[in-house]
Amino acid sequence: MDWNDTPTQTAFRQEVREFIQQRLPNRYRPNADGVPAKGIWEEDRALGTDEEKRASADWVAALRERHWIAPAWPKEYGGAGLTPMEQFLFKLEMTEAEVPSGLPMAVGMLGPTLMVHGTEEQRQEHLPKILSGEVVWAQGYSEPGAGSDLASLTTRATRDGDEYVVNGQKIWTSYAHVADWLFVLVRTDPDAVKHRGISFLLMPRDTPGLSVRPLVNAAFEHHLNETFFDDVRVPVRNRVGEENRGWYVAMTLLDHERSNVTTAVQTKRTINRLIEYANGKGKEQSRIDRLSSIRTAIADRFIEAEVMFNFSLRIISMQVRGLIPNYEASVSKLFGSELTQSLANTGVRAFGLYGQVWDPEHPRAPLNAEHVYSYVNSIPRTIAAGSSEIQRGIIATRGLGLPRG
Ligand SMILES: Cc1cc2nc3c(=O)[nH]c(=O)nc-3n(C[C@H](O)[C@H](O)[C@H](O)COP(=O)(O)OP(=O)(O)OC[C@H]3O[C@@H](n4cnc5c(N)ncnc54)[C@H](O)[C@@H]3O)c2cc1C
Fold it and tell me: Residue 156's beta-bridge partner residues?
């Protein structure tokens, strides 16, 4: 495959760059050392100060003008209808500029699911509000006893006339505390084979009986939640797809670019930033001159970041040819998440005790404490969205043709 841009691709990249330059609010721009901002517009919109709320609204308005809230959605649904290659370039440029990603639940998961399985009424009610940034969604799938083995879920929905009555618990519900609505998998037939007795429901977060409790992570941040359902009444018209077919609704294959280019570009930028800082402003703090093991580790991470980028190129080259990446996406997820962790480890070690300064504003914190923060915050990367063991299982069976254990 020829990786040189066509004239159209060059023009598109330029358009994205200029857009970011002109419209990205300061709140979401990297600092002078290139360290990315932490703000997430969905969170700002719900919990931010007036200024943060304004930044969130400005950014949503800018994206909406170009239909770039949902770059992959077809134009008929208000998306930009970008091809996988254009989506790839769009993400690449956004990541190169260190623009924080939005939450993927509404645009990446629910929207495409409604396009395929939703009723006309559901599409008309929900899709425009996702595109306007008015409504934030959370995904209620995992339960204390159902994560990797999601089909074991036990949150129960019992039919009562035109409503379901939902009882049970979800866990790790990301951003449920800032969400307006949840899409939830529930068990509607406890006697059926486990994949067959599940339904897919939509419910406002303020439905009586639905409560969200914070789970604060090891970085003292609140992104995750437990969600409890105590006789929560959901109209049957809020079910997506047929009753007991929710598993297949939830597994809808999304026609999205799947290269993981965001992780690939982020790791390349992070390692380059580390090298530049350790050789310049942070020379006094760094141990690079003294320890060959650190130099070797940095070189290893640099090479691995290039490898990661090549995995992304492999996937997008498949999608451009109309192929659906399968175990290749698992390779990229596995490699990218483990690389994020080892890069954070290398970054902390490169600065010795300075590497452990936690306060990003502290003058002795190298690169605003980005590595120690990532060291703690990247722990769940190898669990969320399919753990490393699950990815290895897919690679072993589908990629290498090994027998199931
Ligand atoms: C940061 C974060 C955000 C999340 N956000 C959401 C969200 O918004 N909504 C939501 O519904 N869920 C969310 N999750 C949940 C996530 O999908 C689950 O954590 C994940 O599927 C793993 O499930 P589990 O935590 O129950 O672990 P388990 O499935 O119990 O796994 C425990 C261990 O056993 C291993 N294991 C399990 N099965 C196998 C197997 N077959 N072969 C080999 N090893 C195996 C796993 O790899 C893991 O090491 C989030 C998780 C995290 C960490």
Answer: 167, 187
pLDDT above 90 (res 405): no
Task: Transcribe 188-225 into DSSP letters.
Answer: S-TTS-GGGSEEEEEEETTSTTEEEEEEE-TTS-EEEE
Q: Does residue 383's CB lie within 6 angstroms of at least one atom of ligand 1?
A: yes
CB of 95 within 6 A of ligand 1: the answer is no
Residue 345 Cα distances to 109, 185, 289, 319, 353, angstroms: 32, 37, 18, 33, 13
**Do residue 282 and residue 163 come from a single domain?**
no
Distance 379 CA to ligand 1 centre (A): 12
Q: Domain check: are 78 and 43 in the same one?
A: yes
Q: Which of 43, 93, 98, 257 is catalytic?
A: 257
Give domain status of residue 323, yes or no: yes
Asked if residue 81 belongs to a domain, the reply is yes
Kindly indicate the confidence band of residue 37, based on its pLDDT and cuts at 50, 70 and 90.
very high
Domain total in the chain: 3
Q: Is residue 112 part of a domain?
A: no
Give the distance (Å) from ligand 1 centre to CA of residue 61: 35
- Please write the tens of the pLDDT for every residue from 287-323: 999 999 999 999 999 999 999 999 999 999 999 999 9
Looking at the fold, whether 94 and 205 belong to one and the same domain comes out as: no
Q: Does the Cβ of 387 fall within 6 Å of ligand 1?
A: yes
CB of 397 shorter than 6 A to ligand 1: no
Centre of ligand 1 from the C-alpha of residue 143, in Å: 9
Task: Give yes or no for a contact between 225 and 173, defined as CB atoms under 8 angstroms apart.
Answer: yes
Q: CATH number, domain at 216?
A: 2.40.110.10
Using DSSP bridges, classify how beta strands 137-140 and 198-204 pair: parallel, antiparallel or unpaired: unpaired
What's the predicted TM-score (pTM) here?
Answer: 0.95
Judge if 292 and 242 occupy the same domain.
no
**Distance, CA of 227 to CA of 209 (rounded, Å):** 10
Q: Are residues 270 and 361 both part of a single domain?
A: yes
- Cα 329 to middle of ligand 1, angstroms: 17
- Ligand 1 pocket test: which of 40, 142, 198 has the largest number of ligand atoms within 8 Å of its C-beta? 142
Ligand 1 contacts CB of residue 380 (under 6 A): yes
